[in-house]
């Protein structure tokens, strides 16, 4: 019986990234790792009830998210791509 090898986290995911102005308006301007950015965005989306009622995979934009999204609604799969475009490397 082989013992499971513990996975080490990828250092690239743990590197703090500085959000630009649009992203900072939602999550704050402190540099945080990509994983934390995703978590904070979902916290904001859920706290403001922005998931589409009919299709939970869609996220509706409010005044803070519209400049970030560039449109009224995105899918949860587009969220990761938006993060890359809205952080300073």
Automatic annotation (TrEMBL):
<dbReference type="InterPro" id="IPR036885">
    <property type="entry name" value="SWIB_MDM2_dom_sf"/>
</dbReference>
<dbReference type="InterPro" id="IPR019835">
    <property type="entry name" value="SWIB_domain"/>
</dbReference>
<feature type="domain" description="DM2">
    <location>
        <begin position="12"/>
        <end position="89"/>
    </location>
</feature>
<dbReference type="GO" id="GO:0016853">
    <property type="term" value="F:isomerase activity"/>
</dbReference>
<dbReference type="InterPro" id="IPR003121">
    <property type="entry name" value="SWIB_MDM2_domain"/>
</dbReference>
<keyword id="KW-0413">Isomerase</keyword>
<protein>
    <submittedName>
        <fullName>DNA topoisomerase III</fullName>
    </submittedName>
</protein>
<dbReference type="Pfam" id="PF02201">
    <property type="entry name" value="SWIB"/>
</dbReference>
């Amino acid at each position: 019986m082989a013992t499971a090898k513990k996975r080490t986290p990828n250092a690239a995911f743990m590197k703090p990234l500085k959000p630009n102005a649009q992203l900072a308006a939602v999550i704050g301007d402190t540099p945080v790792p990509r994983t934390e950015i995703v978590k904070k965005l979902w916290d904001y989306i859920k706290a403001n009830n922005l998931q589409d009622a009919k299709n939970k995979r869609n996220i509706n934009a409010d005044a803070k998210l519209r400049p970030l999204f560039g449109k009224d609604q995105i899918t949860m799969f587009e969220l990761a791509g938006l993060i890359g475009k809205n952080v300073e490397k």
